[in-house]
Amino acid sequence: IDHLRRGTNVILDGTLGTILIDPTEEEIAEAQIRDGKRLTLESKLKDAVGQPSITADGVVVTLRGNVDLPEEIEVVAENGAEGVGLLRTEFLLIGRNEMPGENEQMEFFTRVAKWFPNSPVIIRSYDVGGDKFPAAFRAQREANPFLGWRAIRVCLDEPEMFRTQIRAVLRARALADVRFMLPLVSQLEEIERTRDLMTEESERLDRDGIEYGADLPLGVMVETPAAAMMVDQFAEKSAFISVGTNDLTQYTLAIDRGNARMASKFTALHPAVVRLLKRIVDASNQERLEVSVCGEMASEPLPLLLLIGLGYRVFSTSPVTLPLVRWLVRQFDVPTAESAAAVALEAPTARDVYEVLEWRLRDMIDPDLLDLGPLPGS
Ligand code: PEP
Ligand code: MG
Q1: 217-266 tens-digit pLDDT
Q2: Mutation test of ligand 1: which of 127, 222, 291 has the most ligand atoms closer than 8 Å to its C-beta?
Q3: Does residue 247's CB lie within 6 angstroms of at least one atom of ligand 1?
Q4: Ligand 1 site, residue 223, Cβ cutoff 6 A
Q5: What are phi and psi of 296, to 5 degrees?
C-alpha cells in the first residue's frame, strides 16, 4: 500500500479482506455486482430486525445475544434479541490485579438485566485459563493449556473467587431473571460441587439477611466430547443445556480453534460433531430442558440450517450477526432443514455435509447473496 502511485485504482473488499491493485474492467464489473448484492442483503437484514424470528413455515425460534464487553449490550437490545444467552464474565478481570468484588459483579449483572426486562440473562462463570490468565492469577505454565487448568476447573480450585461470583449471581437473581452456567464441564462432580457451593452461599446470605433468589437455574455448557457423551446424565442435574460449539468442535476434532494452519479442517460440519449435536438435542428434549447453541456455528448460514434441522430452536450469537440470523431463520422452513439434517447424520465427510446443506439452502435463498464459507478441507 505504501508503494501505490497516486490515482491508482484499487478494489478493497472488506468482507473477503482483499485488495486488488489495478483491477481490469471485468474485475471492476464483478466487484460492482458483489457490492450490489451486499447492499441488497444489508437492506433485507435491516428490515428483518423488526420482524419476529419465526421460520417460513411458522416455527418459533428464540434469538439471544452473546456479550463479551459491556458496550455490546445495547447492540444486542437494538437488534431485538430476547435476552443474553451468554454473558462472558472474563472482561471483569482484564487489566486488574485484584478480583472484582461481590457488589461490583451484582451491580453489573442487574444493569445488564435491566435492558431485558422480559427475557433471561445467562451469566457464565469465569472461563479463565487456556492461554489467557488475568494478572491476579499465579498460574503455572502448562504444555497444553487448553487441556489443562481452565474454566470450571479453575473456579472449583479457587473457591473464594468462585463463591464471590456465585453470591453476586444469587443476589442478582432476587431482582431479575438471571441464570448461571458452567463452561467446559467434563465431569458430573463439577455440577454437584457447584451446586453444593450455591447451597452454602445461599445459607450464608440467609444468615446475613441479604436478599437472593433461591431458584437460580444452573445450566451446563456442552463443550467437551465427555459432556456430549454424558449429556443424558448431566441433563438430569441441570436446569438447561447450552452448546459451546467452538470448543466442542475443537475438542472433538483435536484441532486448536485458533490454529490458522488447520483452519480449513476446523468445522462444526464434521460428521462426528453433527452426531454429537444430535445426541445433545435429543437428550435435552427427553429431559424437557431448554437447549441452546451459543457458539459461532449458530451465526453461519449452512450450520444454522443444520441446527434447525436437528431440532435446535434457541440460539445465542454475537451482536453484529443477530440481524443475519433472524433473516436466515425467516427464510428457512423446518421440513427442508430436517431433510438436510437427516442426510447429514449419515454423511461420511464434512464436505458431504456441506454439500447437502448448500443444495437444500438453494431452495430457500439465493446463495449468491451470502458468504457460505469455503468447502471444508481434507
Ligand atoms: C464456545 O466454546 O462455543 C463458546 C461459546 O465459548 P467461548 O467461545 O467463550 O469459549
Ligand atoms: Mg467455550
Answers
A1: 999 999 999 999 999 999 999 999 999 999 999 999 999 999 999 999 99
A2: 127
A3: yes
A4: yes
A5: -60, -30
Number of C-beta neighbours around residue 180 at 10 A: 23
SS3 of the chain:
CCCCCCCCCEEEECCCCEEEECCCHHHHHHHHHHHHHHHHHHHHHHHHCCCCCECCCCCECEEEEEECCCCHHHHHHHCCCCCEEEECCHHHHCCCCCCCCHHHHHHHHHHHHHCCCCCCEEEECCCCECCECCCCCCCCCCCCHHHCCECHHHHHHCHHHHHHHHHHHHHHHCCCCEEEEECCCCCHHHHHHHHHHHHHHHHHHHHCCCCCCCCCCEEEEECCHHHHHCHHHHHHCCCEEEECHHHHHHHHHCCCCCCHHHHHHCCCCCHHHHHHHHHHHHHHHHCCCEEEECCHHHHCHHHHHHHHHHCCCEEEECHHHHHHHHHHHHHCCHHHHHHHHHHHHHCCCHHHHHHHHHHHHCCCCCHHHCCCCCCCCC
Residue nearest to atom 6 of ligand 1 (CA): 244
* Of 38, 60, 42, nearest in space to 51 by CA: 60
Question: Could you say which ligand is closest to the alpha carbon of residue 294?
Answer: 1
Whose C-alpha lies nearest to ligand 1, atom 8? Answer: 246
* Ligand 1 neighbourhood includes 303 CB (under 6 angstroms): no
pTM over the 0.85 mark: yes
**Cell 460492482 belongs to residue:** 32
Please name which of 71, 72, 94 lies closest in space to residue 85, comparing C-alpha atoms. Answer: 72
Is the CB of residue 245 below 6 angstroms from any atom belonging to ligand 1?
A: yes
What proportion of the chain, given as a percentage, has pLDDT over 70?
Answer: 100
CB 185 within 8 A of CB 220: yes
Residue 97 pLDDT level (bands cut at 50, 70, 90): confident
CA distances from 171 to 107, 196, 206, 337 (A): 9, 17, 11, 41
Q: Is the CB of 300 under 6 A from ligand 1?
A: no
What is the structure's pLDDT at 1? 65
Q: Which of 248, 285, 292, 294 is nearest to 270 (CA)?
A: 248
